[in-house]
Amino acid sequence: MQEILFVNACTRPQSRTLRLARHVLAGLEGQIQEVELYREKVMPLSPEEVEQRQQLVDTRELEHPLLSYARQFAQTDGVVIAAPYWDLAFSAVLRAYLERVLVAGVTFRYDRQGVPQSLCRARRLIYVTTSGGPIGGLNLGYGYVKALGETFFHIPQIQCLQAEGLDVWGTDVEAILGQAMDRWDTGMDTTL
Ligand SMILES: Cc1cc2nc3c(=O)[nH]c(=O)nc-3n(C[C@H](O)[C@H](O)[C@H](O)COP(=O)(O)O)c2cc1C
């Protein structure tokens, strides 16, 4: 059975991003492992953790809890990230999580030329977001995650499902969410 890692950076029980992400997950085959970033209180790496992490990698103590998010990410077959559109990108908790996932020696390694080589299994990453206003071409959160996925993890299929303008006065939120789900289901949507 394939494993899907669901990275949940949503803040609210009634989150529209979460609804879209759950729709995507329902269409995927595999066992879902969810990481709820706010519930787990994922924090940015402290200076002490940066030091300790390097030591752990140098001494190949890769089972240490400090490396658990990176280990989990490396071992999954697919990734779904749900991240509301904040400040043209995403919230700080997702950035903190990504800091803990990008570990040279666990999720990627540098070759002799300094080029990153992936140590991850994932073949697909789906980034789900919703915004209050228009996103236009400024989905910087997705652009960033896509760049990480391509550069460090060499994930061949990286897609985005987004629903825009949900906080605009008079908007039919249900209709926009429904359209996004339909686009996803018919395989038409998805990238920037
Ligand atoms: C801290 C914060 C920052 C936000 N920044 C933006 C933004 O830059 N552009 C935008 O269109 N909407 C922005 N929004 C609105 C959210 O993107 C929008 O309400 C989204 O649908 C929330 O997702 P949720 O329903 O999953 O919580 C922001 C909301 C919050 C709370």
Profile the largest sheet: 5 strands, parallel
Distance between the termini: 30 Å
Number of contiguous helices: 6
CATH architecture: 3-Layer(aba) Sandwich
Q: What is the tally of beta strands?
A: 7
Tell me the β content.
15-25%
Low-confidence stretches: none
Q: Mean of the pLDDT scores?
A: 96
Listing every helix as H and every strand as E from the N terminus to the C terminus, the arrangement reads EHEHHEHEEEHEH
- Radius of gyration over all CA atoms, rounded: 17 Å
CATH class category: Alpha Beta
How is the largest sheet built, in terms of strand order? 2-1-3-6-7
Helix content: 25-40%
Walk me through this protein's architecture:
The chain is an alpha/beta fold. The protein has one domain (3-185): Rossmann fold (3-Layer(aba) Sandwich). 34% of the residues lie in helices and 19% in strands. The model has no long low-confidence stretch (mean pLDDT 96).
